[in-house]
Design goal:
With 336 residues, the chain is mainly alpha-helical. Helix content is 84%, strand content 0%. Helix 2 (50-158) crosses helix 5 and helix 4 (179-285) crosses helix 5 (296-335). The longest helix is centred in the N-terminal third of the chain and has 109 residues, at 50-158. The two termini are 24 Å apart.
Length: 336
Amino acid sequence: MIKKNTKDLAPIALPHGPPVECTSEYYKSLMESARMVKKYPVWDVARPTPQVLMEQARRDLMEADEKLAHKREEERINRKAMDSKWSDLREKEMLLKESFISFNKFIRENQEKRERAERKMEADLEVLERKTKETEVMKERVEEMEEVRDLMEKQVKAYTVYEDYLMSVVQSYPEFKQPLDVLNRYEALAAAKSTLADRQERDLEMLESARQEIAALTEEKKLFIMGLNNKLADLRWKYDQVRNRVLKWELALNRLKETAAQRHVELCHVRDAIWGLYVKISKQKGLPLDVSPTDFEQQLVVVMRALLELKRIYRIAQRRSKENEWTHQYDDGRLL
């Protein structure tokens, strides 16, 4: 007879005791087996080499570049559509502004017409009130003149005595032909007296005016000098403020120059590091150095692509390592 080799199979552990006590362990084992991830290695698929993985990574990178170009084209089309919409909105906004301006002008013209009408109405009312007051004043003057007339008639009657006196004076003094000459002499003397009084008063007024002008000129010059002093103090204060600001900004400029120099040095180090990475990656891949040393963007693109490829290769190698571990564990289990 041919004996079956069962050494590679796991030994079956039979429970001891009554079956009722093993029920919980049975259900527990069923739950653990249901939660287990059953993944068996594929034996009939060829394992890829690093060159194949590199080509797959490059193909994925080319597909990603194509998708990125497609997305950029879509974004350009969408941007063009949005620009056209924005231009339409700007035209509508300008039309709306023009309509608002015309409406505002119409309202302002109506307001000006209304204000002119109100001012004209107020002016007419003022003229009417003034004319009414003038009429009342004229009536009062007429009444006053009538009263003056009555009073003068009374005074003429009362002054008849003086007329008789003037006639007696004319008869006593032959140099006067009639009473009117006496009155003319009196008026001439009164006019001379008034002229002299007016001249004296005018001279006094001129003297007072000159004194007031001198005092006003003195006060004006004092105020002018005080204003110049205040202006000089203000200019000195502004000069101090400007000088302080100049010193402050000079210090800030020096600090800015120092910071810019440090940043420039750091930027030079970073550029040198990028160029070194680019040269090293190109030599390892066997690519020509066709990028200019000053084109840092293209150098970073090459470095980023290399890093992405290395990251993908690392992930694939890590996954392959895990698969190999699982395969060895499975082989060891079968051997046991």
